[in-house]
From TrEMBL:
Residues 7-205 form the DUF4159 domain. This is DUF4159 domain-containing protein. It holds the Pfam family DUF4159.
Length: 209
């Protein structure tokens, strides 16, 4: 895997809808440029889950609203990628633990890694302190506060851990939509809400402040 330069790689899978929140990657790349000195690829890369190209990238993003049902090659690649040190940030755009994306994705993870592999992580986990400090755990999104989705504020994230490191970080909070705006509009926010995205990426890359 190429760790010398960060590339935002988005996973394309055959079921469901994978191409959500299209401005979000450039927004996070701008945040990395603003807050860190790590070398960046300025363009998002789309990587098919069934392709061996997946193994070039240590960080990948997967999202959607609909059914997640990997075919045989997609499932094999996903499992091999995670077990060999890859990191996948998975975000449920429905922000709904009873929604189609959540139920089908969690079924896929159970099939690949076992029924107890996907677990809630502590709000004191290293990922909340890898660059910026989030003392209360995962920051709340405006969609949760507005009562969309399951009308819950999720005070946790889930993860699959491999060799004491997160391999799959799973969110029902809809960070993708929260960060889906032109990066030039961040100046209008009282607090830059993409900072947690910086934490996620630096943790995935094995870089700590």
């Amino acid at each position: 895997m190429q760790r010398s330069k960060f590339t935002f790689a988005r996973i394309k899978y055959k079921s469901g809808n994978w191409d959500t929140d299209q401005r979000m990657p450039s927004n996070l790349l701008n945040s990395l440029l603003e807050y860190t000195t790590i070398p960046l690829d300025p363009e998002e890369k789309i990587v098919e889950l069934s392709s061996h190209d997946l193994f070039k990238y240590p960080f990948c993003y997967l999202s959607g609203h609909k059914l997640v049902q990997f075919d045989q090659q997609e499932a094999a690649n996903f499992k091999k990628y995670v077990n060999n040190g890859g990191f996948v940030f998975v975000d449920d755009c429905n922000h709904d633990i009873d929604g189609l994306f959540a139920k089908s994705f969690e079924t896929q993870m159970s099939n690949l890694f076992g029924p107890t592999a996907l677990k809630k992580i502590s709000n004191q986990h290293q990922i909340y302190h890898s660059f910026f400090n989030f003392e209360k755990g995962p920051p709340t999104t405006s969609f949760e506060l507005n009562g969309w989705g399951d009308d819950l504020v999720h005070d946790y994230l889930k993860a699959i851990t491999v060799n004491n490191r997160i391999g799959v970080l799973y969110s029902n909070k809809d960070y993708g939509c929260e960060w889906d705006y032109d990066f030039r509009n961040k100046r209008f926010l009282a607090e830059d809400n993409t900072k947690f995205g910086v934490n996620i990426i630096l943790y995935a890359m094995g870089i700590n402040s």
